[in-house]
Amino acid sequence: MVYMVIGMIGFVSFLLFDISSMKKWSFVKYVFIVIGISLMVWSTVQMAYLAPSFLVSSGARIVAFGLSVVFFGLLIYSVFIEVGIKTYKKVAHHELVTDGTYSLVRHPGVIWLFLLYFFLSIVFMNTELLITAFVWTFVNTLYIMFQERIVLRKIFQEYDRYTLTTPMVIPNIQSLRKFMTSTIWRKE
């Protein structure tokens, strides 16, 4: 439980990163992003070393491991590649991303993080990681609500229009259709 709470502090650090980016505090924003990621990674490693608390077949664990890798890749892709390394530069260029995984939902990282921890809980047969999947998703949702209100609406003039066409976290039929027909995913 302690590790889960320590990891939750990472989300506060992410919000401070966003605010620092908005205010153009170059050095400070890096401190916050490094702290946030470090807290979450450290907490995850500590939870992975806890004794197994339920049993799962080897086959299910192998499938869960594969899915963990997929959702970790999607998390990295959505947050660091689609949004762009440019966001994490010293002088960030803010550009609203509305295609790719961001046509599915406004915050695809929330989905990928939940699924990553859900499947990691199966890999490590760990109830704490399973609870973490739900708790961190709740905290992550609070974070993105603040992020939208405090940062995104101020940085992007077109953000309100984007909120009308794309759901926050849970995809709908329209966003699924838009995502599946996005030219980013298929060759023209």
From TrEMBL:
The keyword Transmembrane helix applies. GO terms for cellular component: endomembrane system. Keywords: Membrane, Transmembrane, Transmembrane helix. It is found in: Endomembrane system. Its main location: membrane. The chain crosses the membrane at residues 6-23, 30-50, 62-83, 104-123, 129-146. InterPro entries: Phopholipid_MeTrfase. The keyword Transmembrane helix applies. Pfam families: PEMT. It is a multi-pass membrane protein. It comes from the Bacteria. This is Protein-S-isoprenylcysteine O-methyltransferase. It comes from Candidatus Xianfuyuplasma coldseepsis. The lineage of its organism: Bacteria, Bacillati, Mycoplasmatota, Mollicutes, Candidatus Izemoplasmatales.
